[in-house]
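Cont'd.
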Amino acid sequence: MIKVDTSSFVPIYEQIKKEFKKEIFRGDLKPNDPLPSIRDLATELLINPNTVARAYRDLEMEGFIYTKKGKGCYVADDSTRFMAEERKSILMISIDEAIEEAKKFGLSPEEIKRLFEERLGASLKGIDKGE
Amino acid sequence: MIKVDTSSFVPIYEQIKKEFKKEIFRGDLKPNDPLPSIRDLATELLINPNTVARAYRDLEMEGFIYTKKGKGCYVADDSTRFMAEERKSILMISIDEAIEEAKKFGLSPEEIKRLFEERLGASLKGIDKGE
Amino acid sequence: MIKVDTSSFVPIYEQIKKEFKKEIFRGDLKPNDPLPSIRDLATELLINPNTVARAYRDLEMEGFIYTKKGKGCYVADDSTRFMAEERKSILMISIDEAIEEAKKFGLSPEEIKRLFEERLGASLKGIDKGE
Amino acid sequence: MIKVDTSSFVPIYEQIKKEFKKEIFRGDLKPNDPLPSIRDLATELLINPNTVARAYRDLEMEGFIYTKKGKGCYVADDSTRFMAEERKSILMISIDEAIEEAKKFGLSPEEIKRLFEERLGASLKGIDKGE
DNA sequence: GTGGTCTAGACCACC
DNA sequence: GTGGTCTAGACCACA
């Protein structure tokens, strides 16, 4: 389910954090649900367990998950406390960035809108292909 | 004109490279136009000259600019050779990322579209505010 | 194994690049073989790690090696793709330069040939001396 | 007559120095012959007069030329004093470098010799083409 | 431990 | 003044 892009400039642990925040917000992960074990996730993503551990540690510090020593990590009861603003900021930032890029390349608002809708359409078709 | 975000995960030199590629594509920088001197730009951006030099060196290796020793750096004659695909890839990537984020947060295509148009509107008003 | 001449006009990082290209071409370095670590090679050559890093970064941009973050640098699978022409150009250039020098000093083709063979003989004896 | 390669790592003033040493050795420039004026040569080579001045200054310090203030630069009477060893070292160095390159690329002595003769032949034909 | 980025500051070739 | 190379050493992400 979770994917990471090792060629991205964004650190892998940040990508992992973001993925879990999304799953929690969507409700795919509910309070007290267990997260995959550090070793399993590291194996699945072909990365070092330390990197997953770093992501989990951050998520715990931010209050999204809690850790039972010797058992594993679980979604916190109040995990959705900050989710609305988290969601908003993550979405706003990425959309605003895309708009900024397009403006800096000299595209008009109409062109930007058309391009976005084109990509949105392509993305929806992508779903059918099982992505 | 150019801005960099030192808190971003994207390296400063990559941000500088992208900015100049946009200016060249828009035509704000034409073939044989001089780029700001390394020291001047470093002073303006409050960063180290080596960081600007790294960006300029990369741009030269990628064929966008050329260097006259002791004189300065200039936009290459064939600087727009790869610009179409560069522009496309940069725009596609940022737009697709925004769409991916929204989908992963569980938004429907209609919600994504509405949110995008809302941000696009906000961005256009931003221009009036003198950004 | 690798040597650099810090008094040469040729930048150290260029000398390092050339050495690795030769090793790859000769087959002493095969695809997926690891290169020496940046710090180790810098220590061995008595130069700054940044200088080695510059050479490795260039080799990566030119497609001869690839980098695994936190692991090291490795010879690329298609590292020999451009090697034939690289080798040819490097060899042609140095031989042609030697011939040009000799001609400009007024030597006849016969004298040039004799001098070259004399040096080649001296070089072969040099091997026996354990160079 | 004189050529410089601005893309070479060898400084332009070093290339100019070497060219004049060759001309003196060949006898194309004899004691008390005038050198081209700094401005003329700079114009001809499309470089900055300071660069030519640097080359002339070095040649004077090394005893190959002398300067008459307000008149120009002239070949020194004892200009050939060091020429034999200069010539030898310049030729040895470039030939030995070419041989070293070839050896490092894994060529056998026979291959090196054949390649050298091939290039020497090509070079002689080049003369006919008016190079 | 690895490589990547960035800083601060030196020296050099060239304009 | 310009850019290019190199050094010394910092911090970070990753294994």
